[in-house]
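[Q] Does anyone have a clean structure-token version of this?
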Amino acid sequence: MEVATSEEVAVTGVAAGGEGVGRLGDGRAVFVRGVLPGERVRVTVTEERKRFARGTLVEVVEAAPERMAPPCPQVEAGCGGCDWQHVAPAAQRELKGRIVTDALRRIGRVEPPPPDLGPELAPEGWRTTVRAVVEGEGRAGFRLHHAHEPLAVGPGGCLVAHPLVDEILREGVFPRPVGEVTVRVGAATGERLVLCTPTVGDSQVAAGVVMVGADELASGHRAWIHEIVAGRRWRISAESFFQSRPDGTEALVDAVVTALGETLTPGATVVDLYSGVGLFAGVLGERTGGRVVAVESSRSAVADARINLADLDGARIVRSDVRRWHPSAADVVVADPSRQGLGAEVVPRIGATGASALALVSCDPGALGRDAGLLAADGWRLGSVRLVDLFPHTSHVEVVTGWIRPN
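[A] Here you go.
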């Protein structure tokens, strides 16, 4: 059996997935988890490709100043949830800025302005929505890195979970057949909900926590919590998407408003694509007093949006896949797509609205790069880039770009 050998590598960059990038002796790029630009490390190659390789960290020979000891003991135990706990919080935002700039230049072929790194959000106790797997003893936990086995949340709890979530993760008991739980709380309201998959069974949680099974939802049962963001109260159902921290959601709203700038005038018509429960439609519609069109494919989120936007005169909520949506006239557009981005089917639809400004919320650098290239080819000009670090201690990137298209 051939024994893998280690090699010393200088780390020169960071990839979109959070891995450090260096060069092997044969010139191939090598991607390594847990390393930082500026470091010299010893790695073992674990995956061979013709033009690149992947490796595992053996030893940090020369550490970067930004390296820190992971603050959560779960990481040392193998938890795969937070892949950047070895990076000082301030450096995390700077590295994410580099990732975004590289994606816009290399994939999108556009020259971005210097990124605004956004506000410094609390790195601990922030996550109000957590999906966890259930291990054999009925305890909630997270998967080990690159493995299917779960690691139960220990007595010290989860570093990034909101206290109202953390209590459920530590103390809840979820016997079989429960295989997965999603915990969702309203930080401002104190409401708590646990979605058990496939069913609640004999699960036990603290008093006052609403529990619902995925099977019940499939048969028409409804359950939700409420959160307060940007001065508005939002109903968020068990199956609806909502950002996982209210302060970060506030920062996203602020970034969208800033990206739209002077085009967000009184009476402006707003189209909100991938609108979810109506976050941007509600805030912008209240601000402008103009007509609002919210487009969303999720039945659950559309039901929430009808409640959340009921106070806006003339708000129109369209249940549709954005790729099949028939564009309506707009002054400004907000789009918050999934990790796949807008794509070639959606960009022309945005242009067909006649809008002069677009705020694009992206959660994947590669998708942002591809969308940037498509938007530039369709006549849009990139005006601003602002990061919102929704997920500290992870390599996850959230960014709002502002685009202008002369009429």
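[Q] Thanks! Anything notable?
[A] The first helix runs from residue 73 to 76.
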